[in-house]
Amino acid sequence: MKHFWKPKKKTDQITEFEKYAQNLSKADLCMIHRLFEEFENHNSLARDERLKMREDFEKALLYYASTGVGLDEALRRIDVENLGGFYVRPPVVWYALDNAAKIYPISMKHGQMAVFRMSVYFKSAIVPELLQMALTFTIKRFPTFATTVKKGFFWHYLDTTKRRYSIVPESDIPCRPLKVSRSSSLAFRVLYYKNRFSVEYFHILTDGAGGMVFTKTLAAEYLRLMGAKPAEADEGILDINERPSQDEAANEFHRVEKTENISGFINKPAVQMSGKLSKIKPCRILHFKMDSELLKQAANNRNATITAYMLAIMFMAGKHATDEFEGNTRIQVPVNMRKFYPSATLRNFSMYCGIDLPLAEILDLDTIIPNITLQLEQKASKQCMSEMINSTKRMVGALRYIPLFIKTPAARLVYGYLSDRIFSSTLSNVGVVKMPPGLEEYIDSMDFVLGSARTNRANCAMVSFGKTAMLSITKITADPSFEEKLYELLMSEGVMPIVEGSELYGD
């Protein structure tokens, strides 16, 4: 039988996997030999990339052996067929950006990028060997994510790249800009720390809804490799071995019917919270961990949805955190257009509305909640969102034939003038996230974090999983006024949050 590794010279150091293989029976060696023969048939990456991926398989086998998983079962879990034909086919496909994504790369300034982060906390420590295998098997199901950002003559676009997609131990500040200007660099990253893995996305790839599908699918595949029962393709989890559909890569902005009116993006500058802007952005991430039932009860007591209720709390805390006495506070609320136009797309398909209150009218929760509720009903309606999408389409159409090198500085100027100055803060709520019953027991919680803005001192993102609602605050000022008032208000409402998060990364 031909060995699946090359014989070592006497001076060469024997690897851990070779030591493991030397103690296997002839029958077990034959099974591993077949594994790597099939691996070569499923992989035509460059030699260095191929060797690294082969080592990933070896490390997974070593982990299984160290935990008492039999070789038959280990080989079943990491079956090479999970690679499909993805790593064999040449990277010939490219994707035009969706309407929302087109503005992101041309509006970026140095050190600034629209990045968001989704994390899953397990009840046991992450096994890096298996998280790496999970990513290797999962990415083929998301071809629009397996891309790199390229410059065309008129627009940026996403170009397919075939490579080993690697996980990275977390060692830096959350939501740092991705270096998409580098050749073959990715627009997402997968990080792990203790019992948590996180996926950070450049908004050019997807929105919160699409990002959650990838995050959950990766979590489900990781748990399968850990020995959990394989999840069926439901609850927003995709079958990693199913062929991707054309609908998942669709630019759904084209589906939105034309409206008589359009909604512009220009608005007056909003009141900003006070506090010195930090040099390091973000300078702190805080998580308000709340009991979902207590939060729901507090909102019901005020005849409000959870989103309207949390907006009211944020308006009150924001007023406490500013030195201004006049002007309007305006909170940006992303709206998932899939609720109006059902879609399987994993691309961007969201718009936003601005909930607006004069500072003088922010008195107490009872006073402002009815106004917030009414604005959400009107401004986040299908009609208003469709008008804004039509405005986006018109703006993109007007720039269509202008060369990229001309429209990029213009877009940066416009974005620098508008950007987050017309908002005081953001609340992005992806709502209740569910996992199949067989997988929920392995997961403790989830969180959702927005990248830092330019002037908004605090932005908020929220996700609910199981019995926990997690509100995450991204700070760009050391001034604690906003979160302290937020905590005080929630405590007075009986929500009783537990506050966790980082120390100051820097001021």
Describe the structure.
The chain has 507 residues and is α+β, with helices and mostly antiparallel strands. It has three domains: 16-83, no CATH class; 94-254, Chloramphenicol acetyltransferase-like domain (Chloramphenicol Acetyltransferase, 2-Layer Sandwich); 266-501, Chloramphenicol Acetyltransferase (2-Layer Sandwich), CATH 3.30.559. 34% of the residues lie in helices and 20% in strands. It contains 14 helices and 15 strands. α3 packs across α6 and α9 packs across α14. It is globular, with a radius of gyration of 25 Å.
Summarize the structure.
By secondary structure, the protein is of the alpha+beta class. It has helices at 16-22, 26-41, 47-66, 71-77, 103-107, 128-138, 208-226, 292-301, 306-320, 365-379, 382-398, 404-417, 437-440, 481-492, and strands at residues 94-96, 115-122, 147-151, 156-160, 167-169, 188-193, 196-202, 284-291, 328-336, 350-358, 425-433, 443-450, 458-465, 468-475, 498-501.
